[in-house]
Specification:
159 residues, mainly beta, 2 domains, 1 helix
Length: 159
């Protein structure tokens, strides 16, 4: 079922992640969303997004990089030890934000952790490395596939 065909009686309802449910008034045609309908639809979205949405988020450090994560996010990070389905806990939480004032660590937030589940262990697309020196007959061609881990963030805790 398409979200455009999601009609329930009086109006048309649309479900958007992080925005919530948006409903068009009665009499609006959902098919195409042209003209006045499109303006009303965009106004509803603007109305909902102008309200402050408080989602808890954290900035974690792993593999020499920093990532901004929220519960439910799927993140691609440098390879971590473990199998698909294993749980991983990150103790290097640099910052936690959300409803209240952000908590900034120096260098890490004490007692904070982010828990995630490994959903995939794979290698990235192959890159080609070519070394070449003109007029010397020197050519070297190599390839490399960087291993990575894909995680689904389950929860952010702060003690």
């Amino acid at each position: 079922m398409n979200s455009l065909d999601n009609t329930h009686g009086k109006g048309v309802k649309f479900e958007f992640p992080r925005v919530g449910q948006v409903e068009l008034e009665e009499g609006n045609e959902a098919k195409g969303l042209l003209g006045e309908n499109a303006r009303r639809f965009l106004w509803k979205i603007r109305e909902h997004t102008s309200k402050r949405i408080f989602l808890m988020y954290a900035i974690i450090q792993t593999g020499g990089k920093q990532y901004r994560v929220s519960p439910g996010d799927v993140v691609k990070v440098e390879k971590l030890d473990g199998n698909v389905g294993d749980t991983v806990t990150f103790e290097n939480v640099l910052m936690i934000g959300g409803e209240k004032e952000p908590i900034i660590g120096s260098p890490v937030v004490k007692g904070a952790s982010v828990t995630g589940t490994i959903t995939e262990q794979d290698k990235a697309k192959k890159i080609t490395i070519l070394k070449f020196k003109r007029r010397k007959g020197y050519r070297r061609k190599m390839g490399h596939r960087q291993p990575f881990t894909r995680l689904r963030i389950e929860k952010i805790t702060n003690k």
